[in-house]
Amino acid sequence: MHSNHLLLEEPIRMASILEPSKSSFFPAMTKIVGTLGPKSRSVETISGCLKAGMSVARFDFSWGEPEYHQETLENLKMAVKSTKKLCAVMLDTVGPELQVVNKVEKSISLEADKTVIMTPYQGQEASSEVLPINFDGLAKAVKTGDTIFVGHYLFTGSETTSVWLEVESVKGDDVVCKIKNSATLAGSMFTLHVCQVRIEMPTLSEKDKEVISTWGVKNKIDFLSLSYTRHAGDVREAREYLSTLGDLSQTQIFAKIENIEGLTHFDEILQEADGIILSRGNLGIDLPPEKVFLFQKAAVYKCNMAGKPAVVTRVVDSMTDNLRPTRAEATDVANAVLDGSDAILLGAETLRGLYPVETISIVGKICAEAEKVFNQDMYFKKTVKYVGEPMTHLESIASSAVRAAIKVKASVIICFTSSGRAARLIAKYRPTMPVLSVVIPRLKTNQLRWSFSGAFEARQSLIVRGLFPMLADPRHPAESTSATNESVLKVALDHGKSAGVIKSHDRVVICQKVGDASVVKIIELED
């Protein structure tokens, strides 16, 4: 399995480029988050998405009613049952998102060099002269010369579905803007982004709280994607809110960095959040184009060193309407993997794109090819150096397990865990082989009934690069003897064999707790 791992430092053999890509049970180590919507909500399509490599389903509450998303989620559950592939659920909040309200849904044509008025009076009909918006403080927030973008795919310069406006003057609550490019806006709602201007709206709105406390609680969401995170306080506030909602105290919070303000406070946000989503669509507007790649590299590196998942968005926009990505997009996906991203998030591409399954499949194939040339050796040394000495007990065990697996050319690392922390630490060192995380359930009681923990922990590792969870039988509790460990190990090895990652005579590295001690052992499989 590992003879085909090349390093970018070596000249890449042309033969390896001409070889067809091999498909495997784990399409790629890098995970794929798919946004489910109109074009991807049938059981059949979702099953296709899961088989193609989607491991997290994102529900975007910027549009659609909770009942609509509930139907989609019920279909997801059926697809998970039929494909036998685990999938986590991510709820994406609306946050302080500015929107143009187009109630009649007729398309609006805007012509370059003409003017258009933005008004907070939503009763007005949207037209090429007036755009009603959902925020009454815009006139106070902007000044002459500020840039505003309106559109579906926030303006990237190539499409004609987004418009670039410049503020000319403010009249009462209205903002008069000059149109910089001709465009046609279609649909019921378009996002509006004001460059480098703070919008005084709460990060977690009352509408968000209502959705989380009803839809979120009912469905025990695994991840909360906190849109427009601007300060560490935003994450703390969201966590305090989740802690009042029973089971959701276990939900992980991913801070979505969407503007300069979030970037400025990146380090403190990273400390508080469980993971980071780099919303490159909005950030790409807030930053000058020449800085976009830099922030991605810097942010992903910081996430890697902190051992927290980094998720990159907006990679294959053109696949919303096309079967193949552009050359630049294909290169971009690969570079996100080489930078160290844990997951790729697909938005419009799966939500309303024509080819949701094909998009996931192609992105997975590009990730798998990039992983072959990922410089693990350099990455490992960098991480060990960053962690420093003395290492904590767990960190030392995790790095030793990865080093051992690479030295003996193990085909897989198996880690027994109940909280998922040990497995995530192993994955942090980016081993070249998959990490099978065997989640051992813990029995807990509230004096009225028993329940097992473990399912949350297993699903939450579905966003971590290289980590593949499986739930152990609850009859093997976490505080187990060596005999039960052996039977759980057999189940894990059988799972690996059926998945095609383990063959006879392969070596396997196992990381487990025996009593109070953590043990790393190497076994060689017989026939």
From TrEMBL:
Stated name of the protein: Pyruvate kinase
Q: In which pathway does it act?
A: Carbohydrate degradation; glycolysis; pyruvate from D-glyceraldehyde 3-phosphate: step 5/5
Q: Which GO terms describe its molecular function?
A: ATP binding; kinase activity; magnesium ion binding; potassium ion binding; pyruvate kinase activity
What protein family does this chain belong to? Belongs to the pyruvate kinase family.
The superkingdom of the source organism is Eukaryota
Keywords annotated in UniProt: ATP-binding, Glycolysis, Kinase, Magnesium, Metal-binding, Nucleotide-binding, Pyruvate, Transferase
Show where the Pyruvate kinase barrel domain sits: 30-360
Coiled-coil positions = none
Q: Which PANTHER family match?
A: PYRUVATE KINASE
Q: Per its UniProt record, what InterPro entries does this chain match?
A: Pyr_Knase, Pyrv/PenolPyrv_kinase-like_dom, Pyrv_kinase-like_dom_sf, Pyrv_Knase-like_insert_dom_sf, Pyrv_Knase_brl, Pyrv_Knase_C, Pyrv_Knase_C_sf, Pyrv_Knase_insert_dom_sf
**Origin species:** Heracleum sosnowskyi
